[in-house]
Amino acid sequence: MSGRLVVIGGDAAGLSCAAEARRADPGREIVVLERGREVSYAACGIPYWIGRLIEDRDDLVANTVEDLRTRRRLDVRLETPAERIDPEAREVLTADGARIAYDDLVIATGARAVRPPVPGADAPRVLTLRDLADADRLDTLLPAARGGRALVVGAGPIGLEMAGNLCRRGLGVHVVEADEAPVPSLHPDVAAPVRKAMARGCASLRSGTAVDALLPRADGVAAVIGGVEEAYDLVLLGTGVRPNAELGAAAGCATGEAGALRVDRTGRTTVPGIWAAGDCATAWHRILERDVWTPLATTANRMGRVVGRDVSGRRTPFPGIVGAWMSEAFGLGFGAVGLDEDDARAAGFAPESVTRTGRDRAGYMPGAEPVVVRLVFDGPTGRLLGGASAGGADVASRLHALSIAVTAGMTVADLAGVDLAYAPPLAALRDPLELAAAAVTGDAP
Amino acid sequence: MSGRLVVIGGDAAGLSCAAEARRADPGREIVVLERGREVSYAACGIPYWIGRLIEDRDDLVANTVEDLRTRRRLDVRLETPAERIDPEAREVLTADGARIAYDDLVIATGARAVRPPVPGADAPRVLTLRDLADADRLDTLLPAARGGRALVVGAGPIGLEMAGNLCRRGLGVHVVEADEAPVPSLHPDVAAPVRKAMARGCASLRSGTAVDALLPRADGVAAVIGGVEEAYDLVLLGTGVRPNAELGAAAGCATGEAGALRVDRTGRTTVPGIWAAGDCATAWHRILERDVWTPLATTANRMGRVVGRDVSGRRTPFPGIVGAWMSEAFGLGFGAVGLDEDDARAAGFAPESVTRTGRDRAGYMPGAEPVVVRLVFDGPTGRLLGGASAGGADVASRLHALSIAVTAGMTVADLAGVDLAYAPPLAALRDPLELAAAAVTGDAP
Predict the structure, then answer these.
(1) Chain B contacts of A407, Cβ < 8 Å?
(2) Within chain A, which residues score under 50 in pLDDT?
(3) Complex prediction ipTM
């Protein structure tokens, strides 16, 4: 196990992998092929640069190419898209016709934004926001659009982060969502505070509404919504992503959920010598006990490290994900962990749920905010399967706790009986988590 | 199981118990005897009223006496100290000579501040801060002392909360602590940010320093420290508390750690018909697997509810505590859960520990703050025994997570492998908890 390691993709999964492989073997030749002009940037931070909460674009770049080349001795090749993999010859063919031999190959090609099947979805001022090139394109349009109007299509977490940050940037923002409520992956009770936060901000939301067409105009885009034409300076699509799995699939790697490259617990694809990690690959779900496709930066980084070790001869199987995610929009945090009721039912559980609203600190402290907590559990056994939360100064507090409780196999009664720290400015005497769990058990201690 | 329930003590444990008993039996006669002039106040919030973060003193009172009497139909008797219990006759003798018969008796007499064995520790302007009467005494002195100097003796969590709030109120505050570092119950690595936060505030700290004497002066107190006399407008003692267990002990109830009333898992003392709950009683420690005395509002409320059910014929054994506490001073949150290394060693474990500093959100976000996390675990098995944290906007996030992990019996490797939610403004891609755990396992996924 050694020789040349080639990594395709220079962001979260690819560079975590390369860094870990370098740590394991200071002398190994490691080549990183990156399609774009930049590597090692914080994709999740991009909306906050658009909103200018982060003022300096350079802050999004964790390591410069020079650093990676000199300090980590990674042979980073920018603007070098991989076009084809020849697994027999163990070679990657790049767009400029070069053949790069590998001993071990890691595919970390990420995911791409999906444009909805709507006429005009690829018009010039209809944008997506995945990478720094997207961010630059959007950013150059914004000064002219200041005080103008933006349409965000899709009120999922990404759409809302974009909407919130376009508001911060001074635009009037309108969000349309085909589903009945914002953040369709959250139960409406948990999503309700999101709707409220938007109403307090500068954004309007129309849910249960689809965009029929997007028509290019001289200085913007006309959106046809419910038969009516509305004028916008620009349109941002938050309508989902899809794995960049074609390169691996063409090399013979089997695919799984959503067409992502199917990998085992150390990231090996079905083709010898080829690993995959990050948004282009599946990941093991601890509760569903199967491979799923849940593209998240956390998974990309964790699987990147697992693969970086496996290609170095150190097998540390990935314990899996519980699908923990969170998001911030309009000053409100929200997110979820584990299974919702539909997932749980499909997986053979008999789920029940409970929702309670508490507070993020003692009610008499200034700034105390409501916090919604929803728990999903298996009715017959009480086993916690998942949960969600919105609101309060520290949604991470509830979501981290839920990740651990779900991972540990706790029941809802176990959660109701946990001793949680308290101080009036920092938490409530009875945390919303405990209130929700106690509502199920009835007589929580 | 019914007849008259008498509860001695009208705050956290006593009223949680009375409320739960009322819920269980709408018709039962419930008498609450309170020594002071007020009941049902948020003792933990008092420092924040002193600091005027809470502007209205009434906000500290959760339920008025009138509410408790009419809505909950509790026979609340103020300024009625219980002097003696006659367990044979099943009577409580009050200071005014009345004999109050009970069928079930609950002792919830709390704890009192300890004055150190220093000459002058009971001088007029040497104060403690436990209840609203203490708070009023202090508050009347403050306008005159505005811009003046206060000495706080003891840099434990309570002393520091007082110091921080006296600063907020405009005093120059000096804290002396006999131990070498502030918050002696925390490892110095975790307490270091507390020291820094004080230095940024208006308070000075001298640790490893004892007060030799407190001398009353016409308009203040002279403190003799290291042989030198220093003038203060007032002195606040944060030098610990002791259980108000004498009443129960005199009635024959056995005592345990620190002289607190020893109770079983539903709060029964060793005398039939007498329960105890809250700061006057012991509580079951889940990790030590024995009864301990750890006076905390959370335990008081939880045990109060357990007792309120048990006196109503519904046995719901207390699952126990992990000693989770936290505190805020000078804008910094800090706290701990479970065992420190000394506790763990004394309990027969072979503890190891790790400390790491991470951040409370993505490093590139404005306002990102350092967070220290310390984990204590059993070396041979890796089982998490406790942890501590300081700093960041949401210390509750780490401490709640640790409470759950410790309660669930997770190992440090389990913790390193947990999938935690991430969003740049809300948490770090690798949470300080994960960084600390991964530092132990070396190759965390």
Answers:
(1) 414, 417-419
(2) none
(3) 0.96
